[in-house]
């Protein structure tokens, strides 16, 4: 009697084993990490050792979102069509980029400095992340000198951009010396510029004796002088004054002014 019972249990166990062998699963690859927005087909997920027929092998997997994604694999197990759900991981490994309009900026003492001016940061997944830019360094606009500022940014996946460096130069503010000539000699002519209160005078004379003078007004902002000449005299005959409207921008430097790449040195 005991032998019959034992043989019965063995028969049932054998039957269960055979039945279980019929429920096969699709063999997928061990590594299921894919890059954001990459082209991935269902067949890309299947192991080379898989023997089951994949029905939707040419379907495109959605890789437009970072993180864990569920994918349905449709396959044929004998005469039956079945589905198997697996989890894949979509990764973003692309660095964000920082765009900068100028690598070097010059300001004058006392100017307000916006360290993020002209900077933008973009990411392939997060879009505009300019507000996440990290600034390292500072500019003391009250102290003349050079300052190196570093910029970087990271996206939501932790990818860090290539560092960007900008150099700020804070120029010392120079004062106009009144009632003295700033002059230069060029092409046989002597040119001088003189500031007297709120007026400016420009004189140029050539060796042959011909002279031209201009007079006008000027304004100063930092080291920039904007001059507007409103009248000119030829050959020194002030009675022949001619109305004009000529604008010239000068830049104050140490013991000189500059305009059109020409330097007018202060006569001591």
Task: Provide structural commentary.
- This protein has 3 domains: 63 residues, Sandwich (Immunoglobulin-like); 75 residues, Sandwich (Immunoglobulin-like); 86 residues, Lipocalin (Beta Barrel), CATH 2.40.128.280.
- The protein is built from 1 helix and 19 strands.
- The strands form 4 sheets. The chain has an 8-stranded antiparallel beta barrel with strand order 12-13-14-15-16-17-18-19. The protein has a 4-stranded mixed beta sheet with strand order 1-4-3-2, with no helix packed on it.
- A hairpin with a 3-residue loop joins strand 7 and strand 8.
- The chain starts with a helix and ends with a strand.
- The N terminus is likely disordered.
Outline the secondary-structure elements.
Blueprint: H1 2-21, E1 33-35, E2 53-54, E3 67-77, E4 80-91, E5 97-100, E6 104-108, E7 119-123, E8 127-128, E9 134-136, E10 145-152, E11 164-171, E12 181-186, E13 189-196, E14 199-206, E15 211-221, E16 224-234, E17 242-253, E18 256-259, E19 262-266
Parallel strand pairs: 1-4, 6-11
Antiparallel strand pairs: 2-3, 3-4, 5-7, 7-8, 9-10, 10-11, 12-13, 12-19, 13-14, 14-15, 15-16, 16-17, 17-18, 18-19
């Amino acid at each position: 009697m005991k032998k019959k019972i034992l043989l019965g249990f063995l028969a049932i166990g054998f039957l269960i084993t055979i039945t279980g062998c019929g429920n096969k699963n699709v063999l997928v690859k061990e590594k299921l990490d894919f890059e954001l927005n990459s082209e991935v087909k269902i067949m890309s997920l299947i192991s080379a050792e898989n023997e089951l027929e994949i029905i939707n092998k040419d379907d495109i997997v959605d890789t437009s979102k970072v993180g864990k994604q569920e994918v349905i694999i449709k396959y044929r197990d004998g005469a039956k069509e079945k589905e198997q759900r697996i989890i894949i991981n979509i990764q973003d490994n692309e660095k964000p980029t920082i765009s900068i309009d100028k690598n070097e900026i010059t300001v004058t003492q006392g100017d307000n400095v916006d360290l993020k001016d002209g900077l933008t940061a973009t990411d392939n997944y997060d879009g505009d992340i300019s507000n996440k830019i990290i600034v390292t360094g500072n500019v003391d606009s009250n102290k003349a000198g050079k300052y190196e500022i570093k910029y970087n940014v990271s996206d939501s996946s932790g990818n860090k951009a290539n560092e960007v460096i900008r150099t700020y130069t804070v120029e010392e503010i120079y004062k106009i010396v009144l009632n003295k000539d700033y002059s230069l000699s060029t092409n046989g002519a002597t040119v001088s510029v003189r500031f007297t209160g709120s007026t400016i005078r420009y004189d140029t004379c050539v060796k042959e004796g011909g002279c031209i003078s201009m007079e006008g007004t000027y304004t100063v902002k930092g080291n920039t002088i904007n001059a507007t000449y409103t009248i000119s005299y030829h050959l020194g005959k002030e009675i022949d004054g001619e109305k004009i409207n000529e604008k010239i921008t000068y830049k104050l430097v140490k013991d000189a002014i500059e305009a059109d790449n020409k330097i007018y040195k202060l006569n001591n």
